[in-house]
Fold these 3 entries.
Entry 1:
Amino acid sequence: MRAIHFGTTLPKRVRPTAPRRCSGGQRLPKAVRAGTTGLPRVIPVMYDVPMTTQYILSQLDALRRATLSTDGTRQGSFSVLFHSFLDIAEDPDLLKASKPTKDKTIKGAIESCARSITGDTAPGIQGLRMLRIDRAGFIHGTFFAGASVGTFFYFEEERQGLVAFNQGGGVTRFTRLTLLDLPEGAFPVSPPPTGSPRS
């Protein structure tokens, strides 16, 4: 995608031929091409505006909708959702649009999920890398939890996401990540013990 910046009017002897098409590919009116609109001719200074950002945002919007509509009741639904994220993550422009960030609340939630999934009582996760795309309110990253390699994504506005634990041997376990504000006087309930049925 390109944009036109109108610069300084040049003397007639060095004025270029007026372009026949604008940056979006649309054909310009004949009067504009001929310079008969009463406006001085100018050189359109072209500069790149990455369309990749818009493309990534549109892909994340689709992932956002899928995250909200996936409840884990259908066998393999979390796997499909996770692979949708991996398809987006293969695009190097996702990393280009991301900036390092920190969020203690999300980190704590992931650690709680890790203890539940892996059965490890270790107090934390290791090697956490957390990235954020500001325009999408989207956080994603990777970490290690014991012998598992973890990947997660999270939408800030919806306060929902997904955490995947690759345990090797083709085994990947998933858990939904949902953050809620507890009402005054309420307290969190411990997760079910390892080995309990999960969607």
Entry 2:
Amino acid sequence: MADDVPKDAKSLVSSIMGDIATPANPPEPQSEPPTISQSEPGAALPQSATEAKALVSSVLSKLGMTQADAAAQVEAAAADESPAAPDSDGPDEAINEEETEALIDLYFDLEEPDERDALLEQLIANPLPVVTEFFKVMLHEDEDDYMRALAAAALARRHVPEGIEALEADLEDPDEPFFFENAVKALCEVRGVNFYETLHAMWIDADCDGDRRREVMLGMESLDLDRALRDFVGLVEATTDIDTMLDDQIEVAMMAFVRHDYKEALPALRSLHQRVLAAPIDPEERQELGEFIAEGVTLLDSTA
């Protein structure tokens, strides 16, 4: 993760924070577009390293509540209801918008990647609208491709269209496996079981490479386990040309069978093992593939 975020992004966030905290009347038309201030964030920022640590410690202790608790408080406030009292052993109040704004400003000043990663995880779990605006800025302004991808996933989970669109672009043409994996995981959560058909179409696409297929199979398994296991059995049954066998996909399928004790796959695996042993291929390759399938059969057959 990049240690520095562009100053324009920082200024833009500060500008957004001010707009949210203090609504104002629309500005009079100007002959020239307004410029974004390059000054440091305002009084919400800590004035020393000691104060910064104290602020982070205080606010993150409040963020220690579960995401469900935080979401319940936000929903209760929106419905003008009193939120349920927190457990006596937990934090006594949720982080408020002012403290969230201070954390967002502080995020830009943290120099240690681990500290910024930890703070980012807390912000991802924070449902306040001000955090959504922060991720919008990150999506468009951050110089780090990985951080933009994480921002897109966070926005997608909040059902923000621009986040979903960014993930769809990574799904179609990812620069590297991380971006594809990030998109599959987030879109599985956002779209649910209806996303299965999209993944299945990618799985059977001859142009889909092995890395993507493995991630697609894991996504299928998470969305509709019964259907995925049946589809994986179909893959095993359809593997008749051992010379072109997709052993990486067979491995993912066998792991899924073992994880879920899906003994219905045993007949298909045993038949595949016989086809491998009878295949007119290099003897060493035949032995290696035969042992590979046999290991999967043994593991599945020995599960409780």
Entry 3:
Amino acid sequence: MDRPIKCPHCQYSTVLRTEFVVGKARPAFLFVACPDCRGIFKYDGLTGHASFPGGSGGRHIPLISGVLSFTAAVALVLIVRPPWLVAILATPFLIFGVMSFRTALSASQREISELTGMAPVTEETLKKLEDRF
């Protein structure tokens, strides 16, 4: 594996080595971790093209999840009558909504790309996600 690669995250150029490979998808695609920025990208072994896995990863995904969760919580408050039942049913939606908004607003673009894309999530990103909650 002596093919030159360029990270689409930070534009760092290097030679592809086996220690950079963090996963595989189909026979020709590799998930590669950049040694400079540690961002993960998809590498096509046939064409030599590097790209973001599953697109660029959008901050809109956790934002939409947060909005939908808050909407569900408000709907439960308006529909369900006994207050104790509202508290039981709406609390998980409120917690998930807050966690989604915190992820959308405070996570780095690399973390958003890993969490919303097809690439495997690194241990560092999982630890940051756990610490955030």
